[in-house]
């Protein structure tokens, strides 16, 4: 049995490399064309090529989203685009439009074609249909419950991919037209305005039902599936997908490394005990995050899984620096400042090969060797004596 894939999102080249370094078996990205998440930075052809080389060097894969539902005018250049992606060596494309799926197969592209979650595949009959069409993997709808996924996997029709972390749609995924109706921004062509997360006056005729000081919204808590990873492994799920191409590099490093730790533990020990589950949950909670819940995995979500008032993403300032270099002889670390922190205090470091460890950081110096009283200039390069685990690309954060 192949080891289950951990698939991470990335909105730009830096984030993609961080996701791979922190344990992703594959990353999925969007190009400048034919992709949803138009507000992500997205990748030029040259950047995709660079990422493929980086991924290959780290035994990882690159999946490219070609997942918009195109109108007639959106298809200009699609054949040339697919041929270019194939020549670059991407491992897979994630597609919503059957016309693009069939075109990729007709062109003889070597990459796999994965059916996007936009198709809301929720049963084995759908999986069988896509196999008959020559597809290579199905990304199940977020609305699938555990029994649905188990039944589909038991049929062993196609490799199955499921979401384990990140944003959930308050509507049936991929079917919402609120953004189109209210802003003329098409959610299925990359322009979702996330109208569900706006603040509304909820009215019954002329009577307002909402609190005027805390208006009504209708978004969902983010998905967090730590409790279900062992089940997915035993079911034979092929890939575990994290959502969040708009998220920060720190968020990706934290979430990817946490799930990586859990997956590796399960394969080593055969199961996940309470201690590892709680440790992983605590690690994930250190990322900037919205409230989380189990999505549909416990059945139809009740009101406690939805967010009707407070719903904004919590942006923390716990991530304070990233390690750029380390001199073993002098034991001096070179850091790039990300957020405000004070020298001479305990901080926490974690990295691609470092579990979260508390270390004491002493005096910090700028590039001219001046002692700093405070580190409060983002992107500033600073130096400090370091005693404890350290590696390039490790991240340093405050202790909650």
Automatic annotation (TrEMBL):
Coiled-coil features, chain-numbered ranges: none
Keywords, alphabetical: Hydrolase, Protease
Name of a matching Pfam family: Peptidase_U32_C
Domain called Peptidase family U32 C-terminal: residue spans: 316-397
Source species, domain of life: Bacteria
Alphabetized InterPro entries for the sequence: Peptidase_U32, Peptidase_U32_C, RNA/ubiquinone_mod_enzymes
Family: Belongs to the peptidase U32 family.
The protein, known as: U32 family peptidase
Organism: Holdemanella hominis
Taxonomic path: Bacteria, Bacillati, Bacillota, Erysipelotrichia, Erysipelotrichales
């Amino acid at each position: 049995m192949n080891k289950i894939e951990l698939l991470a999102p990335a909105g730009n080249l830096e984030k993609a490399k961080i996701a791979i370094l922190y344990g992703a078996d594959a990353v999925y990205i969007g190009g400048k064309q034919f992709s949803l998440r138009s507000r992500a930075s997205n990748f030029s052809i040259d950047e995709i090529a660079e990422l493929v080389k980086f991924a290959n060097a780290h035994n990882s894969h690159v999946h490219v989203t070609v997942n918009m539902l195109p109108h007639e005018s959106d298809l200009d250049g699609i054949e040339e685009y697919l041929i270019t992606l194939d020549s670059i060596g991407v491992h897979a494309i994630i597609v919503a439009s059957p016309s693009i799926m069939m075109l990729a197969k007709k062109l003889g592209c070597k990459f796999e074609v994965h059916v996007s979650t936009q198709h809301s595949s929720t049963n084995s009959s759908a999986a069988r249909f896509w196999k008959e069409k020559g597809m290579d993997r199905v990304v199940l709808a977020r609305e699938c419950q555990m029994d649905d996924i188990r039944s589909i996997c038991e049929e062993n029709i196609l490799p199955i991919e499921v979401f384990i972390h990140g944003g959930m749609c308050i509507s049936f995924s991929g079917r919402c037209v609120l953004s189109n109706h209210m802003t003329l921004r098409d959610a299925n062509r990359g322009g979702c305005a996330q109208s569900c997360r706006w603040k509304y006056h909820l009215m019954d005729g002329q009577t307002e039902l909402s609190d005027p000081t805390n208006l009504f919204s209708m978004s969902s808590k983010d998905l967090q599936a730590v409790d279900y990873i062992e089940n997915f492994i035993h079911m034979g799920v092929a890939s575990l997908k994290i959502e969040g191409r708009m998220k920060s590099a720190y968020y990706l490093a934290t979430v990817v490394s946490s799930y990586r730790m859990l997956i590796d533990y399960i394969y080593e020990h055969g199961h996940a005990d309470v201690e590892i589950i709680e440790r992983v949950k605590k690690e994930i909670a250190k990322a900037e995050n919205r409230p989380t819940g189990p999505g549909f995995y416990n059945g139809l979500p009740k009101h406690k899984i939805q967010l009707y008032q407070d719903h904004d993403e919590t942006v923390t300032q716990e991530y304070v620096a990233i390690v750029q270099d380390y001199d073993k002889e002098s034991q001096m670390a070179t850091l790039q400042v990300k957020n405000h922190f004070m020298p001479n205090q305990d901080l926490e470091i974690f990295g691609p090969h470092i579990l979260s460890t508390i270390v004491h950081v002493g005096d910090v110096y700028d590039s001219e060797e001046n002692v700093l009283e405070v580190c409060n200039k983002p992107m500033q390069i600073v130096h400090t004596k370091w005693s404890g685990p350290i590696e390039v690309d490790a991240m340093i954060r405050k202790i909650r």
